[in-house]
Amino acid sequence: MAEVIGQGLMLVGALFIFLAALGVVRMPDLFMRMHANTKSGTLGIGFIMLGAAFCFSDSTATLRAVAVILFMLLTAPISSHLLARAAYFSGIPLWEKTLSDDLRGQYDMVTHGLPGGHDAEAQGAVPSRDVK
């Protein structure tokens, strides 16, 4: 029974990874491709690792599968965010049918920080809000 559940989870994971690959091929701009790949790829790897944990039904294999899932949940969104931010600063164009650009005019292109945010406080541009 555990093997059937494991194989089903692996199949669902493979479908999510297929959707991630399809999103990379079909989406019109870099930012949408990264979104599709990060979300679907992370879910796909998570389901495949859960399936492997069910198939092997060993405590060390389960622990390793959970560690891989946690690692992917922590690193994939962060790396995707950093790559998208670097692409935005580099001037990679948005899709021509994009309705709004919420970041336009928000970033300081020299310091790559948000005015009035944590980055500005660290650079001394905004007085600290420390309560004494």
Describe this structure in words.
This protein has 132 residues and is mostly helical. It has 2 domains: 2-92, no CATH class; 102-132, no CATH class. The chain has helices at residues 2-26, 30-56, 59-90, 118-122. Helix 1 (2-26) runs antiparallel to helix 2. It is elongated and about 55 Å long.
The SSE order reads: HHHH
User: Please, what is the average pLDDT?
Assistant: 83
Structural class: mainly alpha
Reported for the largest beta sheet, the result is: none
Span between N and C termini?
61 Å
Features:
132 residues; mainly alpha; 0% strand; elongated
What is the structure about, briefly put?
This protein is mainly alpha-helical. The protein is built from 4 helices and no strands. Mean pLDDT is 83; it is low at 125-132.
What is the secondary structure topology, with strand pairs?
Blueprint lengths: L1 H25 L3 H27 L2 H32 L27 H5 L10
Helix pairs in contact: 1-2, 2-3
